[in-house]
């Protein structure tokens, strides 16, 4: 497993754990993206260094190869000139550069393989980052909806129990108490004025009788005339 994949996996595990425990996953999602950006920036630096190593080794291999060809041509030229000793020394140096070339070639092949692998992993990190960016809006919307639902559930759990319903019960009892007091007051008033009412009724009846008698008297006089 590469260092980049380990960094990514550790980051994902840590963020997931924090999201499970945290009250504000939106902030953590933003932090997660920032952490991924930092990881990608670090990875880009590492990849750039590896590419630089690859290019340097390639250049050294090409230089060694050029020297091998150069010494070969020089040895040929020396031999044609009849200078066998010079040709021998040129061939010896050619062998030295040939060994270097083979060594640089192997190192370059390894470096190129590593660089290609790091490039691939870097692209995977960038693709993962883009995927997380695309998922962020959906996750944020879900987080907000979950928080709203949690708030509504918390409110509904006490709705009509400890506040409104009890208040209505108290007001109902108070209205019943007021009605009872009003009824009692009416009954007290009725009992306290009953005697006066009866006497007033008697007086009223006497006046009516007197008025009837007066009318009878008046009618009698009219009849006599």
From TrEMBL:
Instruction: Extract the InterPro entries matched here.
Output: PspA_VIPP1
- One Pfam annotation reads PspA_IM30
Record region (Disordered): 93-116, 179-202
Transmembrane stretches, start-end: none
Residue ranges, compositional bias (Basic and acidic residues): 93-106
**Locations of Polar residues compositional bias?**
107-116
State the similarity comment. Belongs to the PspA/Vipp/IM30 family.
Q: What is the protein name given in its UniProt record?
A: Phage shock protein A
Q: Which organism is it from?
A: Xylanibacillus composti
Taxonomic classification: Bacteria, Bacillati, Bacillota, Bacilli, Bacillales
